[in-house]
Amino acid sequence: MRVALVQMAAGLDVDENLATIERLSAGIDADLIVLPEAVMHDFGTPTTPLGPVAQPLDGPFVAHIAGLAKDRAATVIAGMFEASGDDTRPFNTLVALGPDGDLLATYRKAHLYDSFGYRESDRLLAGDVVPAVFDVAGHKLGLLTCYDLRFPEHSRALVDAGANTLVVPAAWVRGPLKEDHWATLVRARAIENTVYLAAAAQCGRAYCGRSMLVDPMGVAVAAAGEAEGVIHGDIDAGRISATRERNPALQHRRAWPSIPSDDG
What we know:
Layout: E1 2-7, H1 14-25, E2 32-34, H2 60-72, E3 75-82, E4 91-97, E5 103-108, E6 133-136, E7 139-143, H3 152-160, E8 165-170, H4 178-193, E9 196-201, E10 212-214, E11 220-223, E12 229-234, H5 237-246
Helix pairs in contact: 1-2
Organism: Phytoactinopolyspora mesophila
GO molecular function, one term: hydrolase activity
Protein name: Hydrolase
C-alpha cells in the first residue's frame, strides 16, 4: 500500500486550508493520503472559540474531502471539529473517505490534551473509547489522534481489533523535549505492536512537524522536517509478517491483574 503523508500548517480559514490541501495533494499517486489533525480549522489560541466553526459529518468539509478522495482515487484521512450538540465544545474528529467518496470510518479523539499547561477539555468533548479500525487496500488501519500516542493501551486495543497499521494525524505542540517525545512515541508504538505507524503532523510556528512513516522494526521509511510538504512510503505486509516471526512479542503477552490501590 502506497502512503502519502501531508504536512502543513492549518489556519483559521476553512477555505484557505482546503486550498492548501488541494495544492499539496496535487499529483499524489497513493492508496492512502493522511492529513493532519485539525486540518479543517486550526485550534488557534486557547481562547479561539471552536464551537462556531464545527461542522456535521455531512457538511461541506467532509464533502470536499470526499471529492478529493474521488479525484485522487485514494482513501483520505483528515482531522476536523465535528458538531456535537454542545454549542461550545465540538468533537475533535478524524474522518476517512474512500476512493468512491464514501465515509469509511470516523474517530472522535478519546484522550484530550489536558497536559503541559493546556486544557483541551475546556474547548472540546472527548469521544467514546471505541477502537476505530477499517480496511484499505488489504490492510487494516487503526485511528489515533495526537495525544493518544501517550497511551499504549489505545494502540494495543487497535491491534487487538485487527489493525496492522496505525494512523496518527497530529498537531503536536512545540516545547522543551516535545519533539523528542513525538519521535520516541511514534517509534515505540510501532515497535511494541510490530505494526506500521503513519503519522501526519501540522507544522508552522506552533507545531513541530516531523511527519513520518515508521515500520514494525521502528525504522523511519520516510520522514519530514519542519517545512510543509508531502512524504511517501510503502506499507509491506511481508515486512509485518517477517518482523512478527523474528519478534513474536504479541504472542508472548500475558494477562496482568489490576491491583487495587491501598487507600489505607
